[in-house]
Amino acid sequence: MMERSDLFEHLLEEGDIALHKLDEWADETPDKTFIYYGETGLGLSFADVRQRSDALAAGLASLGVAKGDRVSVLSSNSLVATISMFAAWRLGALYAPHNFNLRGQLLGYQINDTGPAALITDPSFGEPLAEIEGELDLDHVVVFPESYGSESPGNEDLGVAWNRTACHPLSRLLENGTAIPDVPLDPHDPATIIYTSGTTGPAKGVVLGHRWINQYSFPLRNMDGDDEVLYCDLPLYHVGGVYALLIRALWKGNTVGLWNRFSPNDFWNRIARCGATSCILMDVMVPWLMGAPARSDDRANTLYKVHMQPLAASHHEVARRFGFDFVSCGFGQTESGCGFLAIIDQFGDEHGTPPELYRGMPKQELRERIEYLGGMVVEGTGPIPKGFMGLANPFLEVAIMDDTDNPLPVGEVGQIAFRPRTPGGIMQQYLNKPDATLKAWRNLWFHTGDAGVRDADGTYRFVDRIGGYFRVRGENVSSFEVESVLNTHPKIRAVAAVPVPARVGSEDDIAVFVELSDDQDMSEPELRAYAEKQMPKYMQPAYVRFIEALPITPTNKVQKYLLKKSILEESDALRGH
C-alpha cells in the first residue's frame, strides 16, 4: 500500500473540483460521449454537457443566483438533474436534489429547509407542488420540458396557477440569460446538499464540499480503465448515483449510461446498448436479476466489475452466473463517504466476462491497484463473513466505540466512528442543525450511527443500524418520519414504526403499530389509502397492526423491541417454525 501522503498527492494531481474536470475534458476531448441518456437514446459529448449547463447557468444568473446560494432540483429525469448540478456549480451555488418520491409535508419540509434561490423541476411535479405551494418560501421556479432529452420535449407549463412564485419556462429563461460571472471555486467550498433520514427528527441535509466529492470517488475511479462505460440507474438525489457513478465517470473522462430508474426486465438490454463495464447493484436488484430464468448466454455481457451494497450472501453464485470477474464491497455513507473497501476476485486468472467483451483494466493490474489504494483482494471461492467491508480507507482514521466513546478491542461490537486524515474528507455540517452536527462530531469523532466490529486480521464487518432508521429498497427510512406522517390522521393517537427483515433481499420492511384515539375505528385499507397519499411507496408499511395501547417504559418511551418481537413471532408461526 502506498503511504497516505503519497495517495493524497495523487488525489490532488487528478484535480480537486468536478466542474474543472468537465472543462478539462470538454477542451481535450470535446466530441467524446460523456452521457448516453438511455431513456431517449440521446448522446451528449463533454462539450455538449458544458454548453447546456452553461446556458442554464446564464439563465439562473439572470434570476440573481450567486455563489453560496442553493439550487433545488425536483425531477425524476436524471439528465435534468445532471445539467442543473453543473449549472449550479458554475455559479458557485450548491446542488440540492430532492427525493422525487416525496409529497406533502415531507417534500415541503425539504424544500423550505434548503431555502433555495431557485427550484428546478418539470411539469410532472405540478400537482404535488401545487398541494404545498402556500407553504413554500420560493421566489423562482424553473420548468424544464416534460420530456427533456428527447426530440420532442413537450410543454414547460406546470399546469397550475402559482400565486406567489415566478415560474420560468426553460426556453424563455435561456433566451433571457445573462453573462456568466467568473466565480472561483475552492475545494472547501460547499458543493451539494444531500438529504438523509434523521432518527429523532426530520431528515437532515448533509452539506458536502468539493473536496469530499473528489475523495469519495477517488478509490472507485482509480479501479476503472481509461475507456470504460459506467451504468447508472440510481437516483441522482443520493451520493451513490451522482458521485459514485456519474462524477466518477467524469473524473476519468469515461462515458456513463444514464437511466432514470432500475428495470429488472430491461437491465441487460441497457447494458448491451451502452456497453457498460461497471455498475452498482443495490440490495433487491440482485434477487430480481437472479429470479429470471437462467440462459446459456448469461455471461455474454460487458459487465466485468460490479459493486454490491450490501454484499449479497450469494455474490459468488451471482458472479459465476453472469460472468462478473470482480465484485467490490465496502461501506458508503453520505456523511463520511467511502469508509471501507475490498474487492472479491471471483474467477482468479480465468475469464468470467468473455475475453472479446472484456474492456476494463487488466485483471492483474486491477488487483495491484486495489492494494495500492489501501484496499484488499479476497478470493471469491473462500468463506466471507456476513457484513464484510474490508479494510479502512487510508484517508480516514476508524474506531469501533462503546456508548461513552471508548475504543473497543478486536471482536467487540460498537459504533463505527471516523476522523479524517486529510482536510475536507467528511461532511461539513447538517444544514440548519448545529446541535445535530455537534452531536455527530462529539469528542472530535464523526459517529456514523452504524454498528460494526473489527476482526483480528484488521478487516471490518457491518453488524447493524443503531437508532430509529432502517433500509428499505436502497433508501434510508426514518421511523420518526413514518410516525410523524401517520400521526397527522385525525383518528390516530400514536404510531410506532419498527423494522423487520424484508421478504425479499437483505434489507428491511416496515411494520407499524397504531393506537387509535378514543371512540375511533379504522380499517387497514383506510390507513393504507392515507399512507399512499402522504408517503412514497418505499416508506409505506408492509405490516399494519392496530393495538389498544403502545407498550411504554416508566419514562414514557415506547418499547419497540417488544413490538418487533411480536411481528417476528407472528411470522415464525405462519411459517410453521
Tell me what you see in this structure:
With 577 residues, the protein is α/β, with parallel strands linked by helices. It has 17 helices and 27 strands. Strands 12, 13, 14, 15, 16, 17, 18, 19, 21 and 22 form a 10-stranded mixed β-sheet that branches. Strands 4-3-5-6-7 form a 5-stranded parallel β-sheet. α3 (46-62) crosses α4 (78-90), α5 (104-114) packs across α6 and α8 (210-221) packs across α9 (239-252). The protein is globular. The N and C termini lie far apart (49 Å).
What is the tally of beta strands? 27
Q: Please outline the major beta sheet.
A: 10 strands, mixed
Provide the gyration radius in Å.
Answer: 24 Å
Number of helices: 17
Mean pLDDT across residues: 91
**Low-confidence residue ranges:** none
State the shape: globular
Report the end-to-end length measured between terminal Cα atoms.
Answer: 49 Å
Strand composition percent: 25-35%
- Briefly note the structural class of the backbone: alpha/beta
User: How much helicity do the residues have?
Assistant: 25-40%
